[in-house]
Design a protein that fits this description.
Layout: H1 32-42, E1 55-64, E2 82-91, E3 106-114, E4 117-124, H2 137-144, H3 155-164, H4 169-175, E5 190-191, E6 196-199, E7 205-214, H5 223-232, H6 236-246, E8 252-261, E9 287-297, H7 301-306, E10 319-320, H8 325-341, H9 417-425, H10 428-441, H11 447-460, H12 462-471
Antiparallel strand pairs: 1-2, 1-9, 2-3, 3-4, 5-7, 6-7, 6-10, 7-8, 8-9
Helix pairs in contact: 3-11, 4-9, 10-12, 11-12
Length: 474
């Protein structure tokens, strides 16, 4: 029989009865097992993520089948390379107790444990987002969360923001379409969403977008189907993913890339780093480069899913950033959120820890359980050969920037052509769902805000506006 211990290996003689002065008490302060259990329980919940709070995850791997050496020197993208990974799915707006089958964007965050360190690709199940400047992000998220007075979610706040920020119309159209409620995490696509850099061994830069296309097929829920499902099972996506992997029905995604040479950036005709826009496939075709599979469930949800920490700041040689304003801000905000939520040494937790060699001078801070191996020097620069040094061969090529420092309003105010192209691709049934979903989401929205939305829809397409009007009985 295995003996019960406390967290430090001390054997527990009695785990049923607290230590007291006599049968009727009171309790004694020297009952350190009681104090430890109560204190630990008080700390069993770390601060909830402000977004992407409700999540599910699994382990797997990505295999590259195409020769990408002309575009990137990153080992993770060399032909034949198999990289272990951890993929966390999530809803975005809801709290940890939210239902899985709500209408919401889904997070699609991947941690690749590469031979050169961890690479985190933090995306969604949509190729676009609501805003293109992180200056608006806290305010946008406030509209998706609870009113501090009523503590209720507010359709009025959401639509007020969207109608005042028309760059959101593309993403709103996706969210309100038939794809706004995936039937499961296995039956939806994933996207890196942002534009990133690829850098090859000649130090040439390419711009790249990452796509993960489900091989299970797209499946979605209507509002009515989702409501019926939520009434029976609030953890439907978590259950589906876990049970599918336990049955060895391992979900797979086709890995595809869009790659554009740095010199060809003007071909797009708009800012390529605008997160509210896609790169048209006719201009930048999709390339099939590999396959991703999930094949192992976690052993401890809290340790692995809840404490998983992702950040786009985690990149490897051959992959870099872009001038995307949203990406630039996330490079700061994500690791800062993790330091607050989990602690300064969150990178040492097993789910977050790199599987490659790590040499750092960051050796202190709460809960640091790493082995100290820096030799004589605990600082840099230093004069000792046994201590880690910088390697300038890993510097990226110059990124040419120009302009005066100012709070620039984006030059591009075309908020309507890409939503129009998406709307025109929809069949009649999909358009009907779009109209009805928008009408449902406008319950309780002020008339003036509804009229602003209708004016925007009119600019996308008169048929778009007419369809929403009919759904609203206007």
């Amino acid at each position: 029989m295995r003996k019960l211990t406390n967290d430090f290996g001390n054997i527990v003689a009695d785990n049923q009865n607290s230590l007291s002065a006599g049968v009727k008490g009171p309790l004694l302060m020297q009952d350190y097992i009681l104090l430890e259990k109560l204190a630990h329980q008080n700390r069993e919940r770390i601060p909830e993520r402000t977004v992407h709070a409700k999540g599910s995850a699994a382990y797997g791997e990505m295999k590259i089948t195409a020769d990408l050496s002309a575009y990137t020197k990153a080992k993770v993208f060399q032909k034949g390379e198999v990289t272990p990974l951890f993929l966390r799915f999530s809803t975005v707006a809801g709290e940890a107790g939210a239902a899985d089958a709500e209408r919401d964007v889904r997070g699609f965050a991947i941690k690749f444990y590469t031979k050169e360190g961890n690479w985190d690709l933090v995306g969604n199940n949509t190729p676009t987002f609501f805003i293109r400047d992180a200056y608006k992000f806290p305010d946008f998220i406030h509209t998706q969360k609870r009113d501090p007075r009523t503590h209720l979610r507010s359709n009025n706040a959401a639509w007020d923001f969207w109608t005042l920020c028309p760059e959101s119309l593309h993403q709103v159209t996706i969210l309100m379409s038939d794809r706004g409620i995936p039937a499961s995490y296995r039956h939806m696509h994933g996207f890196g969403s942002h534009t990133y850099s690829f850098i090859n061994d000649k130090n040439e830069r390419f711009w790249v977008k990452f796509h993960f296309k489900t091989m299970q097929g797209i499946k979605n829920l209507t509002n009515e189907e989702a409501a019926n499902l939520i009434a029976k099972d609030r953890e439907s996506h978590q259950r589906d993913l876990y049970e599918a992997i336990e049955r060895k029905e391992f979900p797979k995604w086709k890995v595809q890339l869009q790659i554009l040479a740095e010199k060809d950036i003007e071909k797009l005709g708009f800012n390529p780093f605008d997160l509210t826009k896609i790169w048209p496939h006719k201009i930048v075709p999709l390339m099939d480069v590999g396959e991703m599979i999930l094949n192992k469930n976690v052993d401890n949800y809290f340790n692995e899913v809840e404490q998983a920490a992702f950040s786009p700041s985690n990149i490897v040689s051959g992959i870099g950033f872009s001038p995307d304003k949203m990406l630039q801000a996330r490079i700061f905000s994500y690791p800062d959120a993790q330091r607050y939520r989990i602690g300064t040494n969150y990178h040492l937790l097993p789910v977050n820890r790199a599987r490659s060699e790590v040499n750092t001078y960051n050796v202190a801070g709460a809960m640091n359980f790493d082995t100290y191996k820096n030799g004589k020097a605990y600082y840099e620069p230093n004069s000792y050969n046994d201590s880690p040094k910088e390697d300038k061969s890993y510097l990226e090529p110059d990124l040419i920037l120009e302009g005066n420092a100012q709070r620039y309003k984006p030059m591009d105010d075309d908020f309507y052509s890409q939503p129009r192209a998406l709307f025109d691709l929809m069949n009649e049934e999909q358009k009907k769902q779009l109209f009805n979903n928008i009408a449902s989401s406008m319950d309780g929205v002020e008339e003036a805000i509804i009229n602003k939305a209708l004016n925007h829809f009119e600019k996308i397409s008169p048929a778009y506006a007419d369809g929403v009007k009919k759904a609203l009985n206007k």
